[in-house]
Design goal:
Strand content: under 5%
Mean pLDDT: 79
Structural class: mainly alpha
Number of helices: 7
Oligomer: single chain
Helix content: 55-70%
Strand order of the largest sheet: 1-2
């Protein structure tokens, strides 16, 4: 599993590096964006127009920063299929008593009556850790910019709900990918500062 993750990170490295460089360029323009927001605070459409003109002047497209996420989706879906159909991963223990089966959700503890419909009667810790790592990555990526944090929170909640009952192996894969992404982004930021 770790070798697969590292292989995918190597394949997707150019996409991620390009995206992180783009994010750093957006961060560098944050003071100018803030000045535009202050200057035209009563004219929202003018703010958007000026910001887009600034990005165009510096050849930046912030939407293309989603490219690595979109590039990883086929791999994520493939991993989901592998976990559903692979006999070798069924019953594969990572942490006995917690992650007893990579092809099933992790169960930290359970109770008899379901309290919340989405959660059911089992608590899965890996999706919570995944959502926390995703939230921290997004906060760190937006550090120094004046982007709204609302979309980051919404995406985190969506992924938490979506991944809550997914197999433990998929949660481990996606969380590891996020952690490696943070490391890669940190290296990109450090190289820019050097």
């Amino acid at each position: 599993m770790l070798s697969t993750l590292l292989f995918l990170r190597i394949i997707l490295y150019p996409f991620n590096a390009w995206s992180f460089r783009s994010m750093e360029r957006v961060r560098a323009l944050a003071p100018q964006v803030q000045a535009i927001q202050e200057r035209y605070k009563d004219i929202p459409h003018k703010v958007q127009t000026e910001i887009f003109a600034l990005y165009k002047q510096h050849n930046i497209n912030p939407v293309l920063g989603l490219l690595p996420l979109l590039a990883q989706m086929p791999f994520l879906l493939g991993m989901f299929e592998v976990l559903k159909s692979s006999f070798e991963l069924r019953g594969a223990q990572v942490f006995p008593g917690w992650i007893d089966n990579l092809a099933a959700p992790d169960v930290l503890f359970s109770w008899s009556n379901p309290i919340i419909p989405i959660i059911g009667n089992q608590f899965h810790l890996l999706p919570v850790l995944l959502a926390l790592s995703m939230f921290l990555q997004q906060r760190w990526a937006m550090e120094g910019t004046h982007q709204r944090k609302g979309p980051a929170v919404i995406m985190t909640v969506i992924f938490l709900l979506m991944f809550y009952k997914f197999p433990a192996g998929l949660n481990i894969y996606w969380m590891s990918s996020i952690v490696l992404g943070i490391a890669q982004q940190s290296l990109t930021r450090k190289r820019k500062l050097d």
